[in-house]
Amino acid sequence: MDAILLQILNGLDKGSAYALIALGLTLIFGTLGVVNFAHGALFMIGAFCAVTLQRILTLSTITIDETQKDFLGNPLKVKTPYVESWFGPETGAAIIDWSVPLAILFAIPVMLLIGYVMERGLIKHFYKRPHADQILVTFGLAIVLQEIIKAFYGANPIPTGAPAAFRGSFDFGSMFGFDPNTIIYPYWRMVYFAFAAVIIGGVFAFLRYTTFGMVVRAGMADRETVELLGINIDRRFTIMFGVAAAVAGLAGVMYAPINSPNYHMGMDFLVLSFVVVVVGGMGSLPGAVLAGFLLGILEAFASMNEIKAIFPGIDQIIIYLVAIIIILTRPRGLMGRPGVMEE
């Protein structure tokens, strides 16, 4: 039972990342009809927003401390971050420590701007082109963004720590009557799951309960009728592209302490996220979220040593096996809409 509970927690952790990326992918496809293979790169850029803010906050001035000497008796050169000079040692250190959560505020305008530029500068020219053309051009864009990140930040992963308050692990075993230290789970992974739940809930609430969201949903269902009512649906869809980019970026920001940002992390999640979208149903937002958590949990259970002893390598292919079964039995996915990708 303790192993089962631990794998469920692992699955919710992985499923949160899958669901957030797949949610953005589905928003773009549902509104614009574009298959965006650059979406994984947006996830990567979000992670590097956290890296960038951390580097900005740790920019330091060098001073000579006469009270400290090196082994030769010379005064030591001391690096003092500017934020500590401006706000005091304690407040400055706290700001640096909380750089990842603060990167959310930094990433939102950055990702909205990137999403707007992508949509207006490139994607809009491919709305009426075949999906194969959309895949090729967005995949090429993803490679370009990946190489830009590699040129500026290097090829090695960059460790990005979580705030000190969320380092360490929580003892789940004691909550459920197990022996102490039986089920230990990192605090930040629980924070990530809670963050994903808030973002997913916020997106659904925005689409369901705001006038803007209702118009967007109407445009997704019948674009021509909405345009006949005098509503500029193109502008709203452009904003939704920015929102989808922001969702992917925020997912990357909060994932930075879990998996050190590197230039190829977007590609690592991209293929899996498209599988999630297909399993959930192309164009279905609830399907994307459901499939994300479902496949995350299945992947976690498939990684158990007991399972791999019986089926070696099953953890590497379980998601694709499930996708094949779903597509064969339900071609539209778990919650797909009729007519989507069926022409």
From TrEMBL:
<feature type="transmembrane region" description="Helical">
    <location>
        <begin position="15"/>
        <end position="35"/>
    </location>
</feature>
<dbReference type="InterPro" id="IPR001851">
    <property type="entry name" value="ABC_transp_permease"/>
</dbReference>
<dbReference type="InterPro" id="IPR052157">
    <property type="entry name" value="BCAA_transport_permease"/>
</dbReference>
<feature type="transmembrane region" description="Helical">
    <location>
        <begin position="270"/>
        <end position="297"/>
    </location>
</feature>
<feature type="transmembrane region" description="Helical">
    <location>
        <begin position="135"/>
        <end position="153"/>
    </location>
</feature>
<feature type="transmembrane region" description="Helical">
    <location>
        <begin position="95"/>
        <end position="114"/>
    </location>
</feature>
<feature type="transmembrane region" description="Helical">
    <location>
        <begin position="190"/>
        <end position="216"/>
    </location>
</feature>
<protein>
    <submittedName>
        <fullName>Branched-chain amino acid ABC transporter, permease protein</fullName>
    </submittedName>
</protein>
<comment type="similarity">
    <text>Belongs to the binding-protein-dependent transport system permease family. LivHM subfamily.</text>
</comment>
<keyword id="KW-1003">Cell membrane</keyword>
<dbReference type="GO" id="GO:0022857">
    <property type="term" value="F:transmembrane transporter activity"/>
</dbReference>
<keyword id="KW-0029">Amino-acid transport</keyword>
<keyword id="KW-0813">Transport</keyword>
<keyword id="KW-0812">Transmembrane</keyword>
<dbReference type="Pfam" id="PF02653">
    <property type="entry name" value="BPD_transp_2"/>
</dbReference>
<keyword id="KW-1133">Transmembrane helix</keyword>
<feature type="transmembrane region" description="Helical">
    <location>
        <begin position="237"/>
        <end position="258"/>
    </location>
</feature>
<dbReference type="GO" id="GO:0005886">
    <property type="term" value="C:plasma membrane"/>
</dbReference>
<keyword id="KW-0472">Membrane</keyword>
<feature type="transmembrane region" description="Helical">
    <location>
        <begin position="309"/>
        <end position="328"/>
    </location>
</feature>
<feature type="transmembrane region" description="Helical">
    <location>
        <begin position="42"/>
        <end position="64"/>
    </location>
</feature>
<dbReference type="GO" id="GO:0006865">
    <property type="term" value="P:amino acid transport"/>
</dbReference>
